């Protein structure tokens, strides 16, 4: 990567902007490099919004377990049918992610996220009135899951696209809320269930979820929607145009690119192994002979190192000593190694050993989860992050669905968790090896991220894009920028 | 099952027969001579007293010949004889006051009591003179799980109140439910109000289902497990609240959300109004200020690239 060329490109970009301000003349020059966040300080407000909304999505998902005991008693159903509620909500959230990101490409991100917040709150409020289990599946599962889908991927993509300087740190901070929220909200909701029973607690949970709308309101509508580019579209939309538009919203062409496919495959393989310790660690500790209390303590401690891992590796990765992708491979490799060591350490029977390995695993798993998103713009370019993230969520969900039952089946076959953990750890290591097949993996610097020149905006559309980047956040919507 | 019922019935008949001769103020154990039929199972509880007093809990479910034995090592001046007597529920049983001899440096007091009905339960104390005492508390088994926090439910909803006996102990013969009425307990009769109450008995647990709750249904509910000779009582508190209770914090949160969203949108509108009022100049200024920032951005990253290169 020739530094001289970069300097030239930057200079040209600057001149372009100045000229555009005066003439609005079209320049057939696409912007180079990553679109720098034009928002400056506002980007950190977005990180705060990401923090709150992610916490309210996944943090609440994690503490749903508090309600399960109540549901089992009230509806007199088995705990397996109750646990379907979480599965449905998680599956809905991941499945509709590409739809959410496509909607953001088509319309304003702000509207999508606020709708998502409203739906997730609505689902929980309706759930508080449920009289049978199916009501819960539909409200707490589908409606809330759909709301969460409209929130998570768009918010994540917005932050990734809007922050370039300290992206990994911002993501680490934003995602650390999952652990923090589930840790602090857990006793709060236990108390609410005792005060108001599960109906009242669900109602209040729904109210809290509505705070996501506040986070959505913070997204300023300057992130360019692709709808702008349709200014010059034909008055009648034929089938082909509609399909093309939809596929561009969904970013389907990105599926045909080898880097993206490799990366998605890698993340899916990660997902197959990554969740296994969270699901089975408590059972493994109990099997080794530790008490319920000790096992629960291991899980809480792992949660704390998870939070630490997210933030510190984000900060470290932004220092720039190593390429983010190399750091990601390192953390995944270590996480895989520690997962394999978990049953081995349990064989020694020592609580301290198991605790240490779990803490190390927690740190690595937190580390890798924030870096996974930070690497994305380098693979697909900032403009396509929105759609790419949505598709990634969908594809990785399939692998995630595979992972936990597979480990459970292995445990049933072999009688203990050793094989399941070893398989899970080897998934992670296999994923790292897959990641090395990414182009330019072994180069010491980041390759230039691909930028797409959309084929339907070759002439008039381009200046609209540049205007979008140039618009300050305090301007009214970019549609008025012309 | 029917055999023990038969036994119990016969014992009761004998007791009633003997009651006519005995002053009701001093409950006494049935004398052994009134027992020509098959003997009850026997059990013994022995306490070696260390110190001056001791309390022993005895769980009884079925009729039994219970032998209570107290052994005391005496105090400094070990007199050769000491008066030993028994009390039931604080009142002395005159007929069995004995003089205890010092044997092997110990005083031993032993008595067999026939436990056949609820009246036979209670507190039995053996005393050595006025110096040493052992209390035996004869009662039914403790209820297994007692929920200390109140069960909360909503007006119009139905609620399940549960009582569970430890499964290691034998299951009760039947269950009764009572509702606290002032200081009394009023029994809930299933048949009286079938739309309101429903009692489901399993072996070790009992469930009281209360339908169409009203606020007046709040209070303490008592479940009583009935055994052959004893009963055991557990209690649960029920609290009925209206839906307004959780609605208050909910409305507070909704108001907060609306206020914040409105504030953010209004702030943004005012900012953009300011800018459009400032006109192109401000526009130019605004777009200029991020540009130096933007310049720093790519330059920094290019320098990072240089560093990496």
Describe this structure in words.
- The complex is a heterodimer of chains A (482) and B (309).
- With 482 residues, chain A is an all-alpha fold.
- Helices cover 75% and strands 0% of the residues of chain A.
- The C terminus of chain A is likely disordered.
- Chain B has 309 residues and is an alpha+beta fold.
- Chain B contains 3 helices and 17 strands.
- In chain B, a hairpin with a 3-residue loop joins β8 and β9.
- The interface between A and B is large, with 51 and 48 residues.
Question: Which two chains touch over the largest interface?
Answer: A-B, 51 and 48 residues
Q: Name the helix and strand elements of chain B from N-terminus to C-terminus, one letter apiece.
A: HEEEEEEEEEEEEEEEEEHH
The low-confidence parts of chain A are 11-38, 453-482
Gyration radius of chain B, in Å = 37 Å
Number of strands of chain B: 17
Measured between the Cα atoms of the first and last residue of chain B, the distance is 91 Å
Q: Tell me about the biggest sheet of chain B?
A: 9 strands, mixed
Structural class by secondary-structure content of chain B = alpha+beta
Report the mean per-residue pLDDT of chain B as an integer.
Answer: 75
